[in-house]
Amino acid sequence: MGQDNVDLLFAGKAFADLSFWRKVGVSGADGSSWLNSLISADIEDLSPGRARRSLLLSPTGKVRAEFTVTGPDGGGLLLIQDPMQPRSILDLLSPYTLSSDVALDDRTDELALFAFPARAEPPDAAGSVASAPSCLGVGTDVIAPTDDHDVLLAHFSNLATLVGNEDLEAWRITAGLPRVGVDVLEDDLPQEGDLAGAVSFDKGCYLGQEAVAKVQNLGHPRRALLRLEASGPVAPGDLIEADGKEAGEVTSAASLNGRTVLLARVRWSARQQSLQTGGGVELRARSVGPWPNPAVQSPA
To answer: pTM of the prediction?
Structure first.
């Protein structure tokens, strides 16, 4: 894990091979409307080449899965999901097909996926399609048949630096982007994992809508996901205290050039208090912007 590669990712000069991520095709005459009636994002106006981050919620508003929906391609949709999440979106959606004219297909092995986190425009690549924003939250993706994987990987490697999973994870933590299965758990509401941006509060009914709307309009969540910087080394799982009482825990941490940045789940009432780890390391709030690439917006 190195600062140089993290800097290159922020500068739009590096990319990641995410071909191992889950990919699920949604097709059929009812596919788009059916999916829109279940998920948190509004995809009714999704156009080719565009993508939208979404959640599948439980009836009580808890996060069951987070994924990216790409725009129509040949009459269907593609769902891209981080395999760190414990349950596949394919398995979660399948029970809801019932009598609808919908087909769900596992396309993970059929498609290659390359992510360019801080690029507003994808590099040219014959036989591929672009999708923006990226499944990583910002930037753009390139999707192509698996048969073209090796050729595209060599092509992109001549244009930018290929980074591994450790560098990508350090970039994500530095950027303050939450990861479901790491920073956000299945017991969390979207607002507790800083995922409200993946929820449409204007569209019609979908799973969990009433619960998330109630929190948004009438109250506050039980906890908050904070972006912090530490005065010393910390690790995921370290307990966090406020006024000598347990207040939460570190969920992600990265140390680069002597600086330790982290994400942490902290109870709501302690979110603005002075925080430290159980080992006495002081924690302070940090900013995640402005981003080096002005075309990419800092996550809210």
So the answer is: 0.92
